[in-house]
Design brief:
It comes from Shewanella atlantica. The chain is α/β, with parallel strands linked by helices. It has helices at about 5-20, 25, 45-55, 100-105, 110-120, 130-135, 155, 185-200, 200-210; strands spanning about 30-35, 60-65, 70, 80, 85, 90-95, 120-125, 145, 165, 170-175, 175-180. The strands form three sheets. A seven-stranded mixed sheet has the order 5-2-1-6-7-11-10, with helices on both faces.
């Protein structure tokens, strides 16, 4: 291309952008919106394992929601929330981690009501460990195939008999609901979600990038209960 033609083309492109400032914004893909619930005494790896994997996808926006601005994990480190629980936030994926904090929260009727509303505006719901206890107690998992932390299996399953609990599963995907077993299983399930959404090549890319050994077989559950 001659210099004059190059300059002319550049001027036309600039003029178009000035006339229509939304041109590029409109054609850009909307980020995948991920919202994760945090509460005092949540299990650190429940949240940060999946977030590590999901956050390596392109065009993703991850936000934390909680009932106060600073939340303390069970292991001690704190996180700052992005969104208040004063309302619900539409999202593509809603993450519910577990941890010892769930033992008290299952009796929190205000939280149960908020969960039901939040789930209604969430494309997919992903629980890790005893995060499924919160969903189950809220009646959200009634009739759904689901699993949970096998070390807390009796407690969680005793909260809601209407759930189709799976005693042997690293994770269970049942339409809108993706539930995983204890702690590290959430990281495996997160990569499954990446595979489901963006394909196996992308999931394997993230697996290599993070030097993580992915258990990609949901039936391979070394901690299954009888």
């Amino acid at each position: 291309m001659k210099r004059r033609d190059f300059l002319t083309a550049g001027s036309l492109a600039m003029a178009t952008a000035m006339v229509s400032p939304q041109l590029f914004a409109v054609t850009k893909d909307k980020p995948l919106q991920i919202l994760a619930l945090v509460f005092d005494d949540y299990e650190t790896l429940d949240l940060h394992g999946p977030v590590e994997m999901l956050g390596h996808m392109k065009n993703v926006q991850i936000k934390l929601v909680g009932d106060k601005s600073i939340i303390r994990s069970y292991q001690g480190p704190k996180v700052v929330t992005d969104v208040s629980m004063s309302s619900v936030t539409p999202c593509d994926l809603f993450i519910v981690p577990g941890g010892l904090g769930t033992r008290k929260l299952v009796e929190d009727e205000e939280l149960m009501a908020w969960l039901r509303k939040q789930v209604s505006v969430s494309g997919k719901v992903f629980s890790i460990c005893t995060g499924s206890a919160l969903l189950a107690k809220a009646g959200i998992l009634d009739g759904v195939n689901a699993t949970t932390n096998k070390m807390a299996y009796q407690w969680v399953t005793g909260l809601a008999g209407q759930v189709n609990w799976q005693p042997s599963a690293r994770w269970v995907d049942d339409g809108k609901y993706l539930t995983s077993s204890g702690v590290s299983a959430g990281t495996d399930a997160a990569l499954f979600y990446v595979c489901q959404l963006r394909g196996k090549v992308e999931a394997r890319r993230i697996e290599r990038l993070t030097e993580y050994h992915w258990n990609d077989d949901a039936k391979n559950d070394p901690y299954a209960v009888s």
